[in-house]
Specification:
- The chain is of the alpha/beta class and about 300 residues long.
- It has one domain: Rossmann fold (3-Layer(aba) Sandwich).
- The protein is built from 11 helices and 13 strands.
- The strands form 4 sheets. Strands 3-2-1-4-5-6-11 form a 7-stranded parallel beta sheet, sandwiched between helices. The protein has a two-stranded parallel sheet with strand order 7-10.
- Helix 7 packs parallel to helix 9.
- The two termini are about 35 Å apart.
- The model has no long low-confidence stretch (mean pLDDT about 95).
C-alpha cells in the first residue's frame, strides 16, 4: 500500500514507520521539523521513505502529500503532545491539534484514492469522567487545553466519518512510553535522563495520579491492526493496569538499580487525577492485547536510553 504517516519523528511515528517499511509498504512522511536525535533518523528511515516537508496547519501541504504520492492509507499521528506546553501555549496547541486535524480530514475527503484513515486521539479526549475505566461510548469532555484539543479533534473525525463516510478508525491510547521519546518533561524519559546524569528525578505532581502506561510497540501493533482491518469508529488501547506516578518512578529507579530518591514538588496543575481505559472492544473486535507489562517495557526503554543518551 501507499501510506502516509504524519508525526513520523515522534516516539510512535518512528516505530510505526519502521514497521510499515518492514511490511513492504511504500511510505511517505509529512515532516515539519528536522529532529536529528529522533528515532526516525537513528533508524535510518529518512533513507527508506519519501519525505514531504510541510506542516499540518497548511492544507496545501497535506493535500500535496496525499495527491502526489497517491496515498491509500493515512496514519495521522502528528500533534503537540505535551500537557504542560498546552497549558502555557494553548493557541499553538489548538492550531496543531485541531486545525491540523481538520486539514487532514478535509484533504482526505477530497482525495479519491484514500481507502483508510487511522486517526490518533488520546485517553485525554475523555476529560475527567467519574466512572472508570473509560469505554468508547463515554462522552468526550476535555476541560483543559490539551484535553480539549484532543476532544475536538476526535469529534471532528467522528463528524467526517458520519457525514462523508470516510473510513476512519480512531485510536485512543493510554500514556505512551518507550525508546525514542525526546520529550524529557514526560515522567518516564525525564526520570531516566535524571538518573543517567546522577540527579534525583523530579515528580511535578504529588505522586498520586493514576495512569495506564502503554509500551510503544504495543501501540504500533494496535495501529497496524486497525490499518489492516475494515473497522471504523473509536478503539481504546492500554494495559488496563493503572499505576501511580510515584510507583512508576520507583519502578524506573529499581530497573536502573539506582539509590536516588525522587523529589516530589506537588506543583502540577490542570491534570486529571485518575484515568485508565477498558480495552474490551479491541480484544473482542481486533483480537488485540498488550504484550508488554510495565516491568518488561521499562527494561526495554531504559536499555534504549542507555545506548542513545
Amino acid at each position: 500500500m501507499k501510506v502516509l504517516v504524519t508525526g513520523a519523528t515522534g516516539i510512535l511515528g518512528g516505530w510505526l514507520t519502521r514497521a510499515l517499511v518492514e511490511q513492504g509498504h511504500r511510505v511517505t512522511c509529512l515532516v515539519r521539523d528536522e529532529v536529528p536525535r529522533a528515532n526516525f533518523y537513528l533508524l535510518g528511515l529518512d533513507k527508506k521513505v519519501s519525505t514531504v516537508r510541510g506542516a499540518l496547519e497548511s492544507i496545501d501541504d497535506v493535500s500535496r502529500a496525499l495527491g502526489e504520492y497517491e496515498i491509500e492509507v493515512c496514519y495521522h499521528l502528528a500533534a503537540q503532545p505535551i500537557v504542560r506546553v498546552a497549558n502555557q501555549n494553548p493557541l499553538s496547541t489548538f492550531e496543531a491539534n485541531i486545525k491540523g486535524s481538520w486539514n487532514i480530514l478535509e484533504a482526505c475527503r477530497r482525495h479519491p484514492s484514500l481507502k483508510r484513515l487511522v486517526f490518533a486521539s488520546s485517553d485525554k479526549a475523555y476529560g475527567d469522567l467519574p466512572t472508570l475505566p473509560y469505554t468508547e461510548d463515554m462522552p468526550l469532555q476535555g476541560s483543559h487545553p490539551y484535553d480539549a484539543s484532543k476532544s475536538c479533534a476526535d469529534l471532528l473525525a467522528q463528524c467526517y466519518s458520519t457525514t462523508y463516510k470516510l473510513p476512519i478508525a480512531i485510536v485512543r491510547c493510554g500514556n505512551l512510553y518507550g525508546g525514542g521519546d525526546l520529550n524529557f518533561n514526560r515522567i518516564i524519559p525525564g526520570t531516566i535522563q535524571s538518573v543517567l546524569a546522577g540527579d534525583r528525578p523530579i515528580v511535578r505532581s504529588d505522586g498520586s495520579p493514576l495512569r495506564d502506561y502503554l509500551y510503544v510497540l504495543d501501540a504500533v501493533s494496535a495501529y497496524l491492526a486497525l490499518g489492516a482491518s475494515e473497522k471504523i469508529g473509536a478503539f481504546n488501547f492500554g494495559t488496563e493496569t493503572p499505576t501511580s506516578v510515584i510507583d512508576l518512578v520507583n519502578k524506573i529507579l529499581a530497573t536502573m538499580q539506582s539509590p536516588l530518591k525522587p523529589v516530589v514538588r506537588n506543583e502540577a496543575s490542570n491534570e486529571i487525577a485518575q484515568q485508565w481505559l477498558s480495552c474490551a472492544k479491541a480484544r473482542k473486535e481486533l483480537g488485540w492485547t498488550a504484550k508488554f507489562d510495565l516491568d518488561r517495557g521499562l527494561e526495554e526503554t531504559v536499555a534504549w536510553y542507555r545506548k542513545h543518551l
